[in-house]
Every structure is written in structure tokens, then in C-alpha cells.
Design goal:
This protein has about 80 residues and is an all-alpha fold. The protein has a domain at about 5-60. It has helices spanning about 5-15, 20-30, 35-45, 60-84. Helix 1 crosses helix 3 (about 35-45) and helix 2 packs across helix 3 (about 35-45). The termini are far apart.
């Protein structure tokens, strides 16, 4: 996302009712995603019902993803050792 896009998305917040701003901020804090991303997801899901939903966007933390990658690398190395 470009800087201009981020600024525009943050500008949208100023035009939303307080309860919607608070809900978006709470969701962003709960998921650990930037509020700009949350706004973009909301707009996309409104325009395209087949798009990624909020439920689909639960992501793991970078630390958890690194752990998962390390485990997969160990499993791959073990599998290669068994095949040779």
C-alpha cells in the first residue's frame, strides 16, 4: 500500500460515525492489523461478496509464522533423510 493510499484511508476515518471508528479500531487492535487494512477489507467486502471476509483474515503473528516455518523445514529435512 502506498503512502497516499494510507493517508486517504485514514482520512476516511474522520468522516465515519464514532461508533464505526471505534469498532474498526477495536477490530484492528484485536487482529493486530493496521486500521488502514481493516478499512480496505470492509470496502472490498462491500463491493465484492466473494472477496476475502473478515473471518478469513485472521493471521498469525510473525513470530508464530517463523516457528511454523522452522518446524516445516525440520520436517522436510527429516523426510529427505528418510528418502535417501
Amino acid at each position: 500500500m502506498q503512502t497516499g493510499d494510507i493517508t486517504a484511508l485514514r482520512g476516511i476515518l474522520n468522516h465515519l460515525p464514532a461508533n464505526i471508528r471505534e469498532a474498526l479500531a477495536a477490530y484492528a487492535a484485536d487482529t493486530g492489523m493496521p486500521i488502514e487494512f481493516i478499512i480496505e477489507m470492509a470496502i472490498v467486502s462491500f463491493l465484492d461478496v466473494d472477496s476475502t471476509t473478515f473471518a478469513d483474515c485472521r493471521t498469525d503473528s510473525p513470530g508464530r509464522l517463523r516457528e511454523r516455518i522452522e518446524m516445516l523445514e525440520i520436517q522436510l529435512a527429516a523426510a529427505k533423510g528418510q528418502l535417501l
